[in-house]
Amino acid sequence: MSLTNEAALAALRTVKDPELFKDIVTLNMVKEVRVEGTTVHVTVELTTPACPLKDVIERDVTTALKRVGAEDVKLTLTANTRGASSGPKKDVLPQVKNVIAVGAGKGGVGKSTIALNLAIGLQRTGAQVGLMDGDIYGPSMPTMLGIKGIPPRVRGAKILPHHVHGIHAVTIGSLVEQDKPLIWRGPMAHGAFKQLLLDNTEWPELDYLIVDLPPGTGDVPLSLCQLLPITGAVVVATPQQVALDDAIRAVRMFQQLGAPILGIIENMSYLPLPDGSKHDLFGRGGAEQVAHQLNLPFLGELPMFIELRVNSDAGNPHANYEKTPQLRDALNQIVTMLAGEVSKRNMEGGPELTIT
Ligand code: ADP
Fold first, then answer.
1. What is the homologous superfamily of the domain 5-79 according to CATH?
2. Lowest-confidence segment of 152-161, 173-182, 288-297 by average pLDDT
3. d(CA 257, ligand 1 centre) in Å
4. Cα–ligand 1 centroid distance for 143 (angstroms)
5. End-to-end CA distance of the chain
6. Nearest residue by C-alpha to atom 19 in ligand 1
7. Of 97, 294, 296, 312, which sits with the fewest C-beta atoms within 10 Å of its C-beta?
8. Which residue CA neighbors atom 4 of ligand 1 most closely?
9. How far is the CA of 11 from the centre of ligand 1 (A)?
10. Whether the Cβ atoms of residue 231 and residue 342 lie closer than 8 Å to each other
């Protein structure tokens, strides 16, 4: 019996996306199936270029098709980041598929560092990424991006995000006078964020927009969250108990706003020592426990690395992914976990492929 397109498609229905727990046909990931003799040409579109399970999908597709008689499988893997098909505030930033807010219960836990490195990590997978720096209290982003003192370009009445390190970034620090303390109150912050970051900024088409929120749960981070069509939020915490209490408050803030929590990241988990051992400065694992208690995804832990601090101060974020393998691996794990959680949120696809 010769192999047909229908039989090949039926075989692909047995292949489950290991993260999304549904078959790849139902998930609308199969874009083409063409049988030529005993060769099957198949195109599978991943839901994010950062898909951590490419190899598993590739293996399972090949196995399923060989089981129904294919001798040769020509698989093309493409990626098209999914965005939410519906949701509130769809008229705000319609050119952005996913808005990811990065928050923390308090300052100094590495929230801005992680926001930037998430943006860089997603960009390195091939995604179009923007970074909105709304942290008015700790305007460290211009330094970390190496754009301190450089004003953004302007077209007409619009601000153009800096195109730097492959990402599109607008930092509140480069829009307000630097090195001067600002007293921001809720209503004023709301107006300023709306004007500076949304109305007057020309954001390009983006797969992911990472938003670095002001720390804490006061009215300033709340104002920014209320303006944005947030796909989900990430909470950064250090492992010691006092910091975790604050992180739980941050989780509650997002939940009250109706923003899904994509996960918790533990920063400064431990200090890797030159002899290969690990020094648990703050009690490693605390944030993971909190994630389990609250039934939320744990996206991973980031140890302390002098290189991370040095590269941040030097405005050289790609070095975090190039020079120190342990640092690169920790960041990549967090990035792929995050992309997976976003894909899960956007799971419902369009109509399935039908063979004509
Ligand atoms: P926040 O945004 O929470 O206030 P930052 O991202 O500005 O915190 O980080 C505070 C400082 O800690 C910065 O100097 C940053 O380089 C450093 N830092 C953050 N995370 C790490 C880490 N995992 N290893 C080493 N230094 C870190």
1. Fe-S cluster assembly (FSCA) (3.30.300.130)
2. 173-182
3. 27
4. 12
5. 20
6. 110
7. 294
8. 108
9. 48
10. yes
**Position in ligand 1 atom list of the atom nearest CA 268:** 23
Average pLDDT for 25-39: 94
Rounded to the nearest angstrom, the distance between the alpha carbon of 309 and the centre of ligand 1 is 7
Q: How far is the CA of 110 from the centre of ligand 1 (A)?
A: 4
- What residue segments make up the domains of the chain, in order of their start? 5-79, 99-323
Closest ligand 1 atom to residue 313 Cα is 16
pLDDT computed for residue 184 by the predictor: 62
Task: Classify domain 99-323 at the CATH superfamily level.
Answer: P-loop containing nucleotide triphosphate hydrolases (3.40.50.300)
What average pLDDT does this structure show over 6-23? Answer: 92
* Cβ atoms of residues 20 and 31 within 8 Å: no
Which pLDDT band, with edges at 50, 70 and 90, does 183 fall under? low
- The contacts of residue 217 (CB under 8 Å, 6+ apart) are 105, 249, 250, 252, 253
Residue 298 has pLDDT above 90, yes or no: yes
Locus of tokens 């070095």: 319
Closest ligand 1 atom to 104 CA: 3
* DSSP assignment of 92-156: SSTTEEEEEEEEESSTTSSHHHHHHHHHHHHHHTT--EEEEE--SSS--HHHHHT-TT-PPEEET
Q: Do domains 5-79 and 99-323 have the same CATH topology?
A: no
* pTM attached to this predicted model: 0.90
